[in-house]
């Protein structure tokens, strides 16, 4: 058993906060061994865990000292078992209590676990009162790295939440994306916030870009509290009305929504980009599209094809896109990363990878969405709206738009292939036909004839090709 993390000088509130954080991440089949002397806070921890896990349906949580076992409905799984083995006289009684079966498919919290003999790969949570400060305790997390290594993040999460005075909040996991970041919503009465859990030391760019955007009245979430060393941010909750969901529930809003997206970009592009973001010029665009040539052609059954794509994109960028000064591009500017707030400005998400790039880059990102169809009439209207608002040369802008649209979609094809083959994330393959159609529409622009030739012989992502990628 490996020591995973410690939480020092934890009072009752911080102990309960850690329990609420843990309640958001444990799954059926997980067992927690609660260890410590009488009065260390084992039942206090278990009570906070169970009530957080149950949320609005929370029950009273008495100590199981005399009943030995208490069971509770688990909205996130099957059941929660809370056991106190202090009065157990023989380890075989675990079977009589049903704990051996519960540990297979329920969340199980066990006080005095040593009275029941060895447990099958539990997470050990030790509570040790401090000699000079009996109201405080040192909490340790220990377990096998393979199964419990991710739990090492929990004390840092609890510390940040406690320091920000959000420790009474219940945590609810939010749906993830293709990145490695995790998100949790904190619910405390009528207030809510969002916790971002990123890799340690990776939030500097997010914080810097948040400050840059908010200083210019563009609505990135306010940072409530941060532990940038640990990669943890507590953020303003902009709500659940992702533009993607609003478009799905009320398609009639599409013209108005896409107009707001275009106007946001016009506003954003009126500010010179900061000098510390990556310059996404022709050379960098060519480098990034290398993902396509590296992954898709071979996976689709045409190894070696597409080798000239990067070189052609660099040349076309020099010809078509270097007449306009670069602007700030949020890079992942699309319906999944924007919050609809009625008459208030759109909320912005996922902008830490912002770049300095041609003005068409984010426009094409929003209008040629890998995850959903956009009416061609809306796309054409928004291109015209942007051109009219900025006064750029329409013909040259449309040529650059087609080039950047092709580059983005080709790179996405490579990313989706890599996600499927390397990471086992095959759900993105369903988007490939739409992305490929966008590539073909862009290639229809006469200026992109050299790129069309460089892509000759590469198979369309039809059902057989997608199945081939999925099985690789």
Automatic annotation (TrEMBL):
Q: What is the residue range of the signal peptide feature?
A: none
Which residue numbers delimit the Aminoglycoside phosphotransferase domain? 171-390
**An example Gene Ontology biological process:** tRNA threonylcarbamoyladenosine modification
Return the Pfam families for the record.
APH, TsaE
Family, per the entry?
Answer: Belongs to the TsaE family.
- Please give the Gene Ontology molecular function terms for this protein: ATP binding; metal ion binding
- Keyword Nucleotide-binding found: yes
The answer to keyword Cytoplasm applying to this record is yes
Q: What is this protein called?
A: tRNA threonylcarbamoyladenosine biosynthesis protein TsaE
Gene3D superfamilies found in the cross-reference section = 3.90.1200.10, P-loop containing nucleotide triphosphate hydrolases, Phosphorylase Kinase, domain 1
Where found in the cell? Cytoplasm
- Gene Ontology CC terms, in alphabetical order: cytoplasm
Keyword tags:
ATP-binding, Cytoplasm, Magnesium, Metal-binding, Nucleotide-binding, tRNA processing
């Amino acid at each position: 058993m490996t020591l995973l993390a410690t939480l020092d000088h934890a009072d009752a509130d911080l102990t309960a906060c850690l329990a609420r954080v843990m309640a958001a991440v444990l799954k059926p089949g997980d067992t927690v061994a609660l260890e410590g002397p009488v009065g260390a806070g084992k039942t206090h921890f278990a009570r906070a865990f169970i009530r957080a896990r149950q949320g609005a349906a929370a029950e009273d949580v008495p100590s199981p000292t005399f009943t030995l076992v208490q069971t509770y409905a688990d909205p996130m799984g099957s059941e929660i078992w809370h056991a106190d083995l202090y009065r157990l006289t023989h380890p075989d009684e675990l079977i009589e209590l049903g704990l051996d079966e519960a540990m297979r498919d329920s969340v199980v919290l066990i006080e005095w676990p040593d009275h029941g003999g060895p447990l099958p790969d539990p997470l050990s949570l030790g509570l040790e009162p401090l000699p000079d400060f009996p109201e405080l305790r040192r909490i340790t997390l220990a377990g096998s790295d393979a199964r419990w290594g991710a739990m090492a993040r929990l004390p840092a999460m609890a510390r940040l939440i406690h320091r920000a005075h959000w420790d009474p909040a219940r945590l609810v996991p939010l749906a993830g994306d293709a990145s490695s970041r995790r998100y949790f919503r904190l619910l405390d009465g009528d207030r809510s916030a969002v916790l971002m859990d990123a890799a340690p030391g990776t939030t500097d760019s997010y914080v810097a870009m948040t400050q840059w955007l908010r200083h210019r009245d563009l609505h990135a979430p306010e940072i409530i509290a941060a532990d940038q060393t640990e990669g943890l941010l507590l953020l303003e909750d902009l709500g659940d009305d992702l533009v993607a969901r609003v478009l799905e529930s009320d398609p009639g809003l599409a013209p108005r929504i896409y107009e707001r997206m275009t106007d946001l970009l016009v506003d954003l592009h009126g500010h010179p980009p900061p000098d510390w973001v990556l310059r996404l010029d022709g050379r960098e665009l060519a480098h990034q599209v290398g993902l396509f040539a590296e992954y898709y052609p071979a996976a689709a059954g045409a190894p070696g094809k597409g080798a000239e794509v990067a070189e052609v994109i660099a040349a076309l960028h020099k010809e078509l896109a270097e007449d306009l000064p670069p602007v700030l591009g949020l890079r992942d500017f699309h319906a999944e990363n924007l919050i609809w707030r009625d008459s208030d400005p759109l909320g912005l998400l996922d902008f830490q990878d912002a770049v300095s790039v041609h003005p068409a880059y984010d426009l094409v990102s929003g209008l040629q969405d890998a995850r959903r169809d956009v009416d061609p009439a809306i796309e054409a209207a928004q291109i015209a709206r942007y051109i009219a608002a900025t006064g750029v040369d329409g013909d040259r802008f449309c040529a650059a738009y087609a080039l950047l649209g092709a580059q983005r979609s080709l790179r996405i094809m490579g990313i989706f292939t890599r996600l499927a083959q390397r990471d086992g994330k095959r759900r993105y393959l369903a988007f490939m036909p739409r992305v490929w159609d966008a590539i073909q529409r862009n290639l229809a622009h006469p200026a992109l004839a050299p790129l069309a030739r460089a892509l000759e012989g590469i198979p369309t992502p039809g059902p057989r090709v997608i199945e081939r990628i999925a099985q690789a």
